[in-house]
Amino acid sequence: MNVMDQATKPHERLAAVLAPELESVNTLIRERMASKHAPRIPEVTAHLVEAGGKRLRPMLTLAAAKMCGYDGPYHIHLAATVEFIHTATLLHDDVVDESEKRRGRPTANLLWDNKSSVLVGDYLFARSFQLMTDTENLQVLRILSNAAATIAEGEVLQLTAAQDLTTTEDIYLQVVRGKTAALFSAATEVGGVIAGRPEDEVKALFDYGDALGIAFQIVDDLLDYWGGDATGKNVGDDFRERKLTLPLIKAYASANDEEKAFWKRVIEKGDQREGDLERALDLLNTHGALEATRQEALTWAAKAKSAMETLPQSELRDLLIDINDFVVARVS
Amino acid sequence: MNVMDQATKPHERLAAVLAPELESVNTLIRERMASKHAPRIPEVTAHLVEAGGKRLRPMLTLAAAKMCGYDGPYHIHLAATVEFIHTATLLHDDVVDESEKRRGRPTANLLWDNKSSVLVGDYLFARSFQLMTDTENLQVLRILSNAAATIAEGEVLQLTAAQDLTTTEDIYLQVVRGKTAALFSAATEVGGVIAGRPEDEVKALFDYGDALGIAFQIVDDLLDYWGGDATGKNVGDDFRERKLTLPLIKAYASANDEEKAFWKRVIEKGDQREGDLERALDLLNTHGALEATRQEALTWAAKAKSAMETLPQSELRDLLIDINDFVVARVS
């Protein structure tokens, strides 16, 4: 590994190694997001797809397939499938969350309207099913259609659990598995399946994606209160949106009566006043909720790493391990 | 055919003939709309699925498969798939149209919220793909995922064509193929495919569904200005929502300058005053737009009938022909 490699981030190194495949994925994405009849579709989709996301999920699929020795053409389709499902989910999420910004740019629902976001999201979902059908691999179809159902289920669960202080860590984990980990684990699992690897290897790839996805989301939720790095996240966004994330669930679990009353006022009733975020941060620290959340992220990252370490050593395997380390490095 | 048969409507007779299969479809639907983690999902879905829709689309699949001699179990899955896609589309349509009523009851977006309608719709889409994957028939997967993409494309096209008086009859037909006929034709086509019928028979089933769907939608759009039967539709809903449907496209095409100015004011600008609907109806009659629209519906119904008549005679085939006759009987 040369000095430049040391300096660049693991997902940038992975993107460099997978450059030709990523180029094919981008070509396929552009091809399939086109619409003969409805030019609004590529407009909306391009806004999001070309917005410079890190393409982390399609890279997981490409890396998993390649490290498993796959030499056919369909990991490209699967990577594009995963990106389409992700993009469709983002479009619908922004409608549900009434978001105005994503990746520092105005959201599609703001630039066009909610209607376009809903319908173009549906179009991308349908396109993703066409793409996966192209592979003619039934196991892959099962994995990805199951993942799509788990994602939607997680999103609905998150909706009904919102602002509900009785949300448990178990429910939080189900939501996280749905909204984030299901697509990560499907992305890595299908890489092994398309390569025809044996069940135990496919299971290890699933476990890696599942644990990586959970660690990724916990870190994201932690940074919302932790901040202090260059993530561009504003401290307190989840607090203001009254989202029940792990730090808050942990703080509420060890709150005394007066503190419980505080959480009920700011989260359940949404009656937030000046100084409340500072009070919340103080309580999160006092009860060690941030530190406990950090430990949880590290535990999941360790699970991801050990799952990946059961697989034969290769450059791509090690890059996937580095990505996992990098995810939690933001809170280490 | 006995006297009772004569008196009942063709879709009721079809439902009677397919009663055992429809019961299996309902059981499968209830099973698959369940969610271990998110009880909101079956609540929202049941509101719509149990609301007493006619189950026309799943009946098309069941009838097509059975008349083709299919004796396996998967026409049940395909019928449930088609109903799930239809239900998901309704949920998203009501969000897009900001509807408050469907089948005489408050819509899900009104009873719960837009968020639930978007996410539960996504869940049903994903479930529909799981159901079709169960069939392990790749041709069926291609047909249904193509249909899902065509539906979403048609909906986006309708959105961008809304209130646009330059909409042509060609664009109208594309919208109708997307929003209605694509699912009808996929429903009948997969019945023939799952039964392993030769290409020409499958093509005839597709043509029947396509033409039936187009006739169905044209009749629906015509009744919005025609009324006068027991459909429960309010005359002028599309006018008030400024939808560009076939009667209006035809009337605008033969409008003089003064009439064009009228249409621009009421449809493009949405400046509607008392007496405008009456004026619109008058123009639609003067230019023969309603009669021309009616003729178009009859032409498509004739196409559906002649496609079906290329297939071997059977009770189910004749019931499908009766259904087609019944669709246009409302405007005959």
Summarize the structure.
2 copies of one chain form a homodimer. The first copy, chain A, is an all-alpha fold and 332 residues long.
What features would you describe in this structure?
Two copies of one chain form a homodimer. The first copy, chain A, has 332 residues and is mainly alpha-helical. Chain A has a single domain (10-329), classed as Orthogonal Bundle (Farnesyl Diphosphate Synthase). Helix content of chain A is 74%, strand content 1%. Chain A is built from 17 helices and two strands. The first copy, chain A, has helices at residues 3-7, 10-17, 19-32, 40-49, 56-67, 74-96, 108-111, 114-134, 138-161, 169-194, 199-226, 237-240, 246-253, 257-268, 276-286, 289-309, 315-329, and strands at residues 101-102, 105-106. Chain A has a two-stranded antiparallel sheet with strand order 1-2. In chain A, strand 1 (101-102) and strand 2 (105-106) form a beta hairpin. Chain A is globular, with a radius of gyration of 20 Å. The two termini of chain A are 23 Å apart. Chains A and B meet through helix 6, helix 8, helix 9 and helix 10 of A and helix 6, helix 8, helix 9 and helix 10 of B.
